[in-house]
Write a structure and sequence with these properties.
about 100 residues; about 0% strand
């Protein structure tokens, strides 16, 4: 269940990042037409962009990374859980090694 939740979080963040990319392109596409005296494109710096768009970009990027982390950790925990269930079900009697107390 953890892996599915992480995958859903990541998918939502990826959809949001795609919409953010469309929004950034629609907002700043005219800045690509600005050129200096030598004809080079004047690049727009991140600090010159709108704060809400940058906030959304950073927030969705971090959400995607966190979602991927949840998905991978959840999947690893799921495999660990299934491995222990397998060992419990198919272990031979007398193969368990218990620490001696004496």
């Amino acid at each position: 269940m953890r892996a599915i939740c992480g995958a859903i979080i990541t998918a939502g963040a990826m959809l949001g990042l795609g919409l953010t990319a469309i929004g950034l392109g629609a907002r700043y596409h005219t800045s690509l037409e600005n050129r200096d005296a030598e004809g080079h494109v004047i690049l727009l710096k991140l600090s010159e962009m709108d704060r809400p768009l940058i906030f959304i970009l950073v927030f969705l990027t971090s959400t995607a990374i966190i979602g991927l982390g949840i998905a991978f950790v959840g999947l690893a925990y799921h495999h660990r859980h299934r491995h222990h269930e397998f060992l419990r079900q198919y272990a031979q009697p007398g193969t368990h090694h218990h620490a001696s107390t004496g």
